[in-house]
Amino acid sequence: MLSRRCVRDSCWRLPKVWRGDERTVQKMVLGFTAWPVSSETRRGMVRGALPLTASGFFVGTTVLSGLVLGGQSSDSSGAGTVAAVCFLVSLAALVLSVGLHLGIILFNRPRLLVPPSMRGDRGVWQRG
Which of 36, 66, 83, 98 is the most core-located residue (most Cβ within 10 A)? Predict the structure, then answer.
């Protein structure tokens, strides 16, 4: 439930964060206070809101295609193959989006996925 709320909040607040609304950034940082991490890491989680939102979508498609795949019998036509391909693609996209989110938190890279107003921030593992 906590991660669902984080994804929902990042989806609705992402355009404001992208435009540089510092008030919205602070609200999102406060929203991540349930996580036992430092304030720099929470700000990094806000910087990575775009891949975080995408990962929420890919969790849904992975689960949905897995359910369809699990409900297929072995004698069905090509529906099981399509569901298997959708499952694997969704799972790969989920892993990629989580990896991008972690890369933004730790290194503030790739900059293309970081909101313009936050591109000057340092990642958690970068030295000042």
Answer: 83
Buried b or exposed e, range 27-66, using 16+ CB within 10 angstroms:
ebbebbeeeeeeeebbbbbbbbbbbbbbbbebbebbeebb
pLDDT computed for residue 75 by the predictor: 55
Tell me the two tokens of residue 127: 């030295």
- Does residue 20 fall inside a structural domain? yes
- Structural domain that includes position 11: 2-116
Number of domains in the chain: 1
List pLDDT tens digits, range 75-105.
Answer: 556 767 888 888 999 999 999 999 999 999 9
Q: What residues contact residue 61 under an 8 Å CB cut-off, 6+ apart? A: 86, 90, 93
Q: How many helices (H) and strands (E) does the chain have?
A: 5, 0
